[in-house]
Amino acid sequence: MTPVSFSIDHTRLNPGIYLQAEPGKVYTYYLRFVAPRRSQKEGIPQAVMHTFEHCLATSLRSSAPFAENILYVGPMGCCTGFYLLLNREVDKAVIAAALVEAFDFIIAADAIPAANPRQCGNYLLNDLEAARALALRLRGIFLPGGGYETEYPVLEE
Ligand SMILES: [Zn+2]
User: Fold this and answer.
1) Euclidean distance between CA atoms 112 and 98, whole angstroms
2) Residues within 5 Å of ion ligand 1 by Cβ?
3) DSSP single-letter state for residue 73
4) Which pLDDT score is estimated for 154?
5) Which strands, in side-by-side order, build the sheet including 26-32?
6) Which CATH architecture has domain 7-140?
7) Spacing, Cα 41 to ligand 1 middle (Å)
8) Residue extents of the structural domains in the chain
9) Most CB contacts within 10 A, which of 4, 19, 31, 37?
10) Distance 54 CA to ligand 1 centre (A)
11) 69 Cα: distance to centroid of ligand 1 (angstroms)
């Protein structure tokens, strides 16, 4: 079976929160931070992805209203966003608000949670300063009215 994401027109895809659901099982939210057509210029460097991975997981799992519903938070291999897997459906506006809180967590952080050789597979691969700059930019997009999108552009045959 072809993965559903291969039917999405990535040339028209913008930063946003997109849901792919298997009702009653798993609700996969695509937290797209960079438009794929801009990934050559704006793709997130691996070190920043890693810093975001630690900080997003920490912030969402500790303070999001859906914290106990989180199955997984992890990076997209294409370095344009993250996957958020939940065990129930959550309003995208609620997720956007939790993201803004996570961005504020990154902006205010003076250390990266669990970035040490005992708790991480590659703790030197981090860039908090660049992560702060990205968080600041994304914060504006995911605020109410900031322009983040919620419906996928589907490929036309
Ligand atoms: Zn790590």
Assistant:
1) 18
2) 120
3) E
4) 87
5) 16-22, 26-32, 81-86, 70-75
6) 2-Layer Sandwich (3.30)
7) 25
8) 7-140
9) 31
10) 6
11) 22
